Amino acid sequence: MSLNETPSADRVHIGFFGKRNAGKSSVVNAVTGQDLAVVSDVKGTTTDPVYKAMELLPMGPVMVIDTPGIDDEGQLGALRVRKTKQVLNKTDVAVLIVDAALGKTEADNALICLFEDKKINYIVAYNKSDLLTENKRPSKGEIYVSATQMTNIEALKEMIAALSPADEQNLRIVGDLISPSDFVVLVTPIDKAAPRGRLILPQQQTIRDILEADATAIVVKEFELRYTLENLGKKPKLVITDSQVFAKVSADTPRDILLTSFSILFARYKGLLHEAVKGAAALEKLQDGDIVLLSEGCTHHRQCDDIGRVKLPRWIKNYTGKELNFEFTSGSEFYDDLSKYKLIIHCGGCMLNEREVKYRQKCAVDQDVPITNYGILIAYMQGILKRSLEVFPNIMAEIETATIN
Known about the structure:
This protein is an alpha/beta fold. The chain contains 14 helices and 14 strands. The model is unreliable at 38-46 (pLDDT under 50).
């Protein structure tokens, strides 16, 4: 996969923060070498976070985020500040831009506290250093730059690269579960919810990971699976299915062939699997009137029979027999206060980076709210979760069997 094709969720997320008029957008443009952000002397020019996926040497594929001023005012300003704080949940490296002439203010120090609370690596960049009348020596983790004069911009990029999270060489979607020359069958329904002309991102990424493992990916629709397995001539190592057709695929897949879902693989890939398996059992404790949150990491166009908004609520009500209330979030929206929910059901998180998925998981765990994901919950309701986890023998040994159907 080329750097340009790297999914957003797999890119290092670099967030630029600071007060209005500190020169955040100017520094962003200097660092990226592009007119990514609108620059103006008027305070509050950046009104919403600006995202740009790009290649940034010496790091490679990154997601650069320019944020509104943390000191924005008024009702709209408060909403912008809220969006800025949400960006922190997905930020791998934070760059705090400070006006060199003014020095750090209370608002800047508050941001540093947020970085430290969320364990985000950060750099303090004092911009407009060309306007200083005397040279100042930066402390550790600080640098004086000038976006207009391009002073120390390359040094700033080197500092960002040094703080970037290490590449997890062993972090794979499925590649570590298979061997060269293995056959892997992927079941991908093509229905109204499927994007026209392409596969959805988890399917694309899984196919790529299989090929990188020197294995063979065989892609079929759910109604072709039985015939394919009977005529393949070689037993596949693994069948991976879309969660919506889990029951049919389980019935059509012989018991001696490992079976799991894209959603379960991504729960492991994003660090959510253990909590998600335990969280699925909370379904048994739901009572009439309980509120369940269904959260998606993207903002795709909703179909009339959408998995998150329609199918899952229907299946959950049928399984529990309870009169439940459902609420929904999508994209970057995720509540800090989750205390009113009895269960959180998340999507596979293919559009979210690992940091944001783990942040959402931590929010739930800290507030003692069970959290699971679509595929794990569907497998649980259909009594095939234990089978779906057999592909992870080390995880099976760690998870209490009492929580698994």
